[in-house]
Amino acid sequence: MKLILLFCASLWLCSTFSNSQRSVHNRTSNFQVGVILDLKSVVGSMGLSCMSVALSDFYSIHSNYSTRLSLHVRDSQEQAIEAAAAGLNLLKDVKVDAILGPQKSAQANFLMDLGDRAQVPIISFSATSPSLHSRTPYFVQAAQGDDTQVGAIAAIVKTFQWSQVVMIFEDSEYGSGIVPYLSNAFQDVNARISYKSVFPVSASDEFILKELYKMMTLQTRVVVVHMSHTLGARLFLKAKEIGMMEKGYAWIITSGLMDLAYLMDSDVAEAMQGVLGVKPLIPKSEQLRSFSSRLKKKSLEKSPGIGRADLSIFGLWAYDTLWALAMAAERVGVKEPPKTLENSTVNLNVSDLFNFGKSEVGPKLLKAISETKFEGLSGKFRLIDGKMESSSYQIINMVGKGQKEVGIWNPSLGIRRELNLNATTHDTSSRENMRSIIWPGDSTLVPKGWEVPMSAKKLRIGVPVKAGFTDFVRVVKDTQVNAPTISGFYIEVFKSVMEALPYSVPYELVPFENPDGSSAGTYNDLIYQVFLQNYDAAIGDITITANRSKYVDFTLPFAEGGIISIVPITYEDVNDIWAFLKPLKKELWLTSIAFFFLTGLAVWILEHRVSSAFRGPPSQHVGMIFYFPFSTLVFAHRERIVNNLARLVVVVWMFVILILNSTYTASLSSRLTVQRLQPAITDVSELIKNRDFVGCQEGSFIVDFLIKKGFDKSRIRTFTSPYDCDEALSRGSKSGGISAFYDVIPYSKLFLSKHCDKYMTVGPTYRTDGFAFVFPKGSPLVADVSRAVIELTENGKILEIEQHWLRNEQTCAGPDDNMNSITISLQSFKGLFAITGGVTAVSLLIFIASYLYKYRDFHRRVSNSRITIWSKVVAICRQFDQRDLSSGQPQDKLPESGISPNTSSENSVQPPDLPRNHSNSNEIVSSAPEELHDATTATIHCLNLEDMSAVQHPGVILPSDN
User: Signal sequence: where (predicted)?
Assistant: First the structure.
């Protein structure tokens, strides 16, 4: 009985559970999802198969979810218009909530606008153009954009120090989208895209061969390829056919081509041997291995390549994308029953092609998938601004029948052999960070990135043709073989530099000449021909200038630069009537005369009140001021110096006179006994002011240099040979020649070595950057030739060549310095004049301060009086003019007549009742002003000064009380 009850209970529970499951199934909400792919393509069929497996896997694991995805597949047949038609059908008729696809960037470019209008998310796992994701928020790029891989490619170029690359890309939305990002990435690593080749999607074999042959004529040997795998396969087959997959080349392919390279035929794989490529790093996991195993068991080999779909990043992105959409649908939850068609804001006719409403679920689904994060087969699935988060990239080397990982690139760490996120160093420039690489042609040597095309002609090196100055560059026509012979110092330097390169560069020297053998133009014309690529380089005595560097690249200079002027030598005329003035310069003469006068004036001021030798009428004062300092030249002064301050001034002055006199005597004696050399012109401004003619080499940049210095173009003459320069300098400007010749230092030294007794250099050396070799802009030879120049300079090879070619030429920079005219300048005596001037000034200040303090009451009464300013000045001057009897110095003896030696007879009569020491009332008042207001002094009371007339007492000035 118990068994029967248990059986019945079991039946009831089973029935209840079945009803419950049926109830849950009835509440399941279906999300309509459109799928637009190119089903006949490898990526399309692979993506659909992977999404089918993903759908089965997801709901087998999440069987309790209340939502389900229903896929509606459409074939776009590799056409953008078919993809758009499929999108319209899914949006209008099926009313899908989301669309997976389209497959190509060009298809997505149109379809995303439809999704934006209907507010339905368009989710693509294979459209990787960087320009797509930013146009509308309803386009989701569930794949790594092509812009995320440019850092890995640039890091490879930087690691191997390649300076130039050639870029090949297809003419499509997918192909051109990566170009600006690659250009910026190469610029960051100092690499330049020397040539861009655009291939049509349906390029013919003839077009491919034409472009490849064009690239073979270039010097660059690093090629970056970004195109679809079908066009890429044809490209490498043709490259192998014409020999571009041999030693010396480096090929780098982008992620889209690298990911599908293993699907290509064996002959294509053989042609791609040694190619480097990048593709997103797929982390190894148990889930990935299980997926690969189950995929093979599904018998999906009917579609091309599906049996190996686990190796393709596009299949893994398709799998992860469907999982992400299923998770987002579950987060949105059960949908409400569909409403009637919601039209847009504009009323549309039923026949309107775009008459479809806006989805209510689409915005919610877009938000949910944007917030979805999980670990998928391809790694971490996470969207940032509608785009898959960037990750690390593998660097793959195509070797044999397989692919070899040689490094891993991380945006933060650069290239590493193994990915270690805990590493702190960031060094992407070391080749040690990568494993060994097999390059095209089975070579293990790293391609240098460029070489002279062997199938092309030799490098044509332009050489200037010169009628003179041939010691450095010489072009001689050999009539026997009807070919030019090119030699010279700088030609040998160039040949030695090319021999020092680590590789062979075939070249030929081509004179820059007309059919008649004359020069074809100036040096600027030759450089412009290099710019036009009529010459591959130019050598010779070519100076680096800023203007020329705008058109070509220069190597490091191999000869010194600088411009100097050469002028004729003249001999100083010792019979000149003004020869005695030449030992001292004009400013020294004027300064000496000024100090003579100032010193005499200072001594007179200091001695006038205490010494009879410095007294007398005004004419005697002026004579003494000028006579006394000049008498010290020969120490012939006889005046007795009384004041100590004056003695100090005279002692210092005589020391200055001793040195100045000795210097002048020595210089004058030397000039009169030795014939001296001097330049005819000493300053550029003098040449410009006098409008003299100047010269330089024909075709040289110095013409522009002289014009910038201020010379009139009509006053500049050019010459082709040193003989013409010598003749012109000898004649001078007034006789149809030139006054100065300007040239660079090497030529100037050579010219002076042959004419040491006739010419000399004057003025400053104007800096230039020296002589260098010329190459077209961006030429890879510039760096290697520059390094060779440095090497030959350091080991002395260039010096040996110079000694060989110029061994018979004596170096001469002009006449001996000891033979030059020496004129003493003020600079040599500034210290002496400063000392004597300072002592004199301090002595005068002390004297004046003492004088003003001693007679302060008198000066106060004079300044407070109501007389005119002129009268005040006259009073002070007359008071200063009087003899200082209180100085303690012995007085002069008076004559018997009682007349003072320094006063006139009109005001020198001594009153009979005054003592002898008050023999002159005028002198008493003037010399002792402090007694004017002393009412108790008998001497003052005995004279009625107020009643004296101005004629009787001209030296007395009384302040008025009125």
Answer: 1-20
pLDDT for res 75: 94
Return the amino acid letter for 561: G
Question: Is the residue at 904 inside a domain?
Answer: no
Task: Choose the final residue of a domain: 402, 419, 436.
Answer: 419
Q: Which helix (H) or strand (E) holds 321?
A: helix 313-332
In terms of Cα–Cα distance, which of 260, 93, 114 is closest to 101? 114
Sign of CA dihedral 531, 537, 540, 544: positive
Is 342 a domain residue? no
Cross-strand pairs, 484: 477
CB-based contact 163:449 (threshold 8 Å): yes
Q: What are the respective helix, strand and coil percentages of the chain, to the nearest 5?
A: 45, 15, 40
Residue 444 predicted with pLDDT over 80: yes
Residue appearing with tokens 């120049």: 789
C-alpha distance across the termini of the chain, in Å: 162
- 405 has pLDDT over 90: yes
Q: Kindly state whether residue 180 falls inside one of the protein's structural domains.
A: yes
Q: For strand 694-697 and strand 740-744, is the pairing parallel, antiparallel, or unpaired?
A: parallel
Cα-Cα-Cα-Cα torsion 634, 638, 642, 648, nearest 10 degrees, comes to 0
Angstrom distance (rounded) from CA 67 to CA 65: 6
803 lies in a domain?
Answer: yes
Pair 276, 403 in one domain: yes
- C-alpha triplet 362, 366, 371: angle, nearest 5°: 150
Token pair 């020397």 is at which residue? 194
pLDDT at 423: 58
pLDDT band at 25 (very low <50, low <70, confident <90, very high): very low
Cβ atoms of residues 231 and 239 within 8 Å: no
Closest CA to 858 of 941, 957, 960, 961: 957
* DSSP-assigned letter for residue 457: P
Find out whether 569 and 677 touch, Cβ atoms under 8 Å.
yes
Positive/negative CA dihedral, 846, 851, 852, 857: positive
Q: Is 891 exposed, middle or buried (0-12, 13-18, 19+ CB in 10 A)?
A: exposed
Do both 290 and 269 map to the same domain?
Answer: no
**What residue has token string 């009742």?**
913
Q: How confident is the model at residue 573 (pLDDT cuts 50, 70, 90)?
A: low
Pick the range with the lowest mean pLDDT from 95-99, 294-298, 686-690, 837-841. 294-298
> What is the spatial distance between Cα 42 and Cα 256, in angstroms, rounded to a whole number?
12
CA–CA–CA angle 240, 241, 245 (5° rounding): 25
Which amino acid is located at 782 in the chain?
Answer: V
**Domain of residue 94, residue span:** 29-143+284-301+310-335+357-382
Q: Provide the 10 A C-beta neighbour count for residue 349.
A: 7
Distance, CA of 839 to CA of 289 (rounded, Å): 103
- Exposure b/e, 442-476, CB count within 10 A at least 16 = b: eeeeebbbbbbeeeeeebbbbbbbbeebebbbbbe
Domain tally, the chain: 5
DSSP string, 174-220: HHHTTHHHHHHHHHHTT-EEEEEEEEPTT--HHHHHHHHHHHHTSSB
Cα separation, 939 vs 948, whole angstroms: 15
Phi, psi torsion values for 545, nearest 5 degrees: -135, 160
Mean pLDDT of all residues in the chain? 79
Burial class from Cβ neighbours inside 10 Å (0-12, 13-18, 19+) for residue 962 reads exposed
Alpha-carbon separation of residue 615 from 657, 843, 901 (angstroms)? 25, 20, 10
- Gap between the Cα atoms of 911 and 921, Å rounded: 9
Question: What's the average model confidence in pLDDT over 888-894?
Answer: 48
Which residue would you say has higher pLDDT here, 574 or 532? 532
Pick the most confident of 442-456, 463-477, 610-624, 937-951: 463-477
